[in-house]
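Appendix B. One record, verbatim.
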Amino acid sequence: MRRHQLEHAIRTACQIIGRTEVIVVGSQSILGTFREDELPADATMSLEIDILPIAVDNEETARLADLIEGVAGEFSPFEDLHGFSIDGVDMETSALPAGWRGRLVKVQNANTAAPSGAPQFTGWCLDKEDLCVAKLCALREKDQNFVSALVEAGLVDPGAIARRLPTVPDRYRPGAERALDWIAARW
């Protein structure tokens, strides 16, 4: 995955749902902080971008996520044409630590502009350590590889990840505790 593909996904998702802002919560949100040439290969392997629509409640968020998924999701003509898909997600998808909204990274430039050139669409990407928290709460092998690659490259702070893990919502606590054990065994 490349930064220009992330920017294309932001623009497309905003156009699909008729909004000017979305949040990128999946692994490709790392491209909001780093260019692909700064990242280890394990950090850019995914060919899907998880987009969380911004709405007044999770019911509306889920409805908008379904719109995105229907137009640009896996096996869509969009994926066939562009080589990546956009997955619409809701607030139940990611284990996000306390304060995550205040640490979002803004992606807005000429590549996120509407076809007319204005207004600009904005993608808010997860902070790099918040992203690692979300990935580690799932604790799948691919998520461990993703976080390990970022830590080993010196791009994320395992201490910050460990401090944020206990602040996820209660329903994600078992995953957070396993993730803390996993971090303690490695760093």
